[in-house]
Backbone:
DNA sequence: AAGTGGTCTAGACCACATT
DNA sequence: ATGTGGTCTAGACCACTTC
């Protein structure tokens, strides 16, 4: 028991252990319950940056779960970049400044982290005959039609990106029904997108896009083409996002 | 024993099991040994796309390792997108077409996958006084100097990218000593880079870069700024990579 | 009903870091 | 020497898919 931590070992920590304990009634896996609760605790600032968490064995004993399970929960947070492990030394909170890591920080996530308020404005929503690209990438039959959605993405009122999505009409029969979140709508319709492939490349803004985005034609933009798949591995979403490079950049963390 | 697989269960599979068995002498963890060998086997085409692998229990018994260990090895390949699991059904090879997934496919990786032969040509290697950006991002002291390396990245003889790296002179005292791989050199010097943050954004090519890259000024390029960290979490590498957008694009897979 | 992946346990040993 | 993360085991039960 390190003396330095004594102020945390009394009733303070007792109530904290309780907050981390798994619910008897819940059916979700123990390690997921614990990993979520621990993530909340970290975000709530229970520990300082670079401060060591309780050891895996301590978690195990205090929470009444096996060490393997506790460790598996920590694996999840490690994967998210929330914590780091030092062999023989301990498990540590990743400093906030270095946290924009994880896989690929994107879209509204980054904006929210930077403190912006994201919003969006519909430019058009309707039904169209698919382009050649859409037919191929969405695997459409020859006469099928697509729902096409186009909108501006704003942060604090400034246009940051233009987004155009196409979906087979069979999956989105009424484009007008989509609220502010396409993904949320697909969830409620029973066709959630669970996986997506994103191609990221650079393009010069064409006059149309430039006008809508409020930049000069020819300016470099990031063009992200996303293909979204359902759990059945069917491609049902093709989205192009033109991002203003002066407001947008992507951060990715690589490890060896 | 499914009759359909009988042709794989005889001597064929016997020799295969041996190829997957861990080495008695090796000190590397069992699950890593197995995961590597299995990855090789998959790339060697032991199984077809969408074909089921042997079950976790089968691997466990045949290889003399516990199921937990076998499963942990499979976790690694799952993470890489090489396999997929279907609860109650089995573990399956990911079709090649969908494999450019993983985290973020980049640089020479993608080229090699597409069958190109990567190479590089030095444009300059020397010592310089750091820019303001370098001082800040590398945390240099006021009078420190940097080693600066600049090169063309080619694939099958065509320029695909321009890369400029800066490192504190203390970590790279002799820029001329670097061979074809900066990372390999740093490894041998005892300062391996284990983690890197990459910022990806779009820029218009300036005349200098355009000339070297063989494109028109103003063309959109991907600019990747990478900061590489050692195990001690010290930033020792700052690299800008300008990528020709007609040859380069990044692919990332997202999951929910 | 049988086979598969998904979760969980209790205990063990090793390698590394700190003291 | 002690504590920590890293690996490994043998066995168990559940949930899902397939037949």
Residues:
């Amino acid at each position: 028991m390190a003396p330095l931590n004594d102020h945390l070992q009394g009733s303070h920590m007792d109530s904290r252990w309780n907050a981390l304990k798994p619910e008897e009634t819940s059916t979700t896996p123990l390690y997921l319950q614990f990993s979520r609760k621990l993530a909340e605790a970290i975000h709530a600032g229970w520990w300082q940056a670079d401060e060591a968490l309780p050891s895996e064995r301590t978690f195990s004993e205090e929470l009444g779960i096996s060490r393997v399970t506790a460790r598996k929960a920590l694996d999840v947070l490690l994967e998210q970049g929330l914590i780091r492990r030092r062999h023989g030394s301990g498990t540590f909170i990743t400093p906030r400044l270095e946290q924009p890591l994880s896989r690929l920080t994107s879209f509204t996530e980054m904006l929210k982290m930077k403190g912006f308020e994201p919003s969006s404005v519909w430019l058009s929503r309707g039904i169209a005959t698919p382009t050649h690209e859409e037919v191929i990438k969405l695997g459409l039959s020859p006469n099928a039609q697509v729902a096409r959605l186009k909108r501006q993405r704003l942060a604090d009122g400034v246009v940051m990106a233009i987004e155009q999505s196409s979906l087979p009409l069979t999956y989105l029969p009424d484009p007008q029904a989509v609220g502010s979140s396409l993904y949320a709508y697909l969830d409620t319709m029973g066709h959630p997108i669970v996986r997506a492939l994103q191609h990221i490349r650079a393009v010069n803004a064409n006059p149309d896009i430039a006008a809508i985005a409020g930049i000069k034609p020819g300016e470099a933009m990031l063009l992200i083409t996303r293909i979204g798949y359902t759990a059945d591995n069917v491609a049902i979403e093709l989205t192009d996002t033109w991002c203003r490079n002066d407001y947008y950049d992507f951060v990715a963390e690589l490890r060896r």
